[in-house]
Design brief:
There is one protein chain. The protein contains two helices and four strands. It has a single domain (11-91), classed as Type 1 dockerin domain. The mean pLDDT is 91. The protein is extended, with a radius of gyration of 17 Å. A hairpin with a 5-residue loop joins strand 2 (18-20) and strand 3. By secondary structure, the chain is an alpha+beta fold. The structure holds calcium ion. Calcium ion (CA) is lined by residues 73-75, 77, 79-81, 83-84. The site of calcium ion (CA) has 9 residues, from helix 2.
């Protein structure tokens, strides 16, 4: 299971959604593949100064605030704060 607080390095996942209706019919989605790149806030393929600035501009904000940046909320707790800085520090220098 993915834990954003401890994630280091890239992590690949596949997801298929299965659903049953009330008549017992089952359907499945196509498989979706995705890769997580922890702390690459600016999607540049590396964790560098650009990500530090992105986090700095989002620091202290929550979803209801004007400068909210969901990508800077590295621990997914709806608040950009110190814990997100630590995750960025853990991953600084990573290239994906
Ligand atoms: Ca956070």
């Amino acid at each position: 299971m993915y834990n954003p607080s401890t994630a280091q390095g890239s992590d690949s996942h596949n997801i298929t959604v299965f659903a049953n209706d009330t008549h017992g019919n089952m359907a499945a989605s196509n498989m979706v593949h995705f890769t997580i790149h922890p702390a690459d806030i600016d999607f540049s393929g590396k964790v560098w100064t650009g990500d530090v600035f992105s986090l700095r501009f989002a620091y202290g904000f929550r979803p209801e605030d004007g400068n909210w940046n969901e990508d800077a909320d590295l621990d997914c707790n709806n608040h950009v704060w110190t814990a997100d800085v630590f995750i960025l520090r853990q991953n600084y220098g990573n290239e994906y």
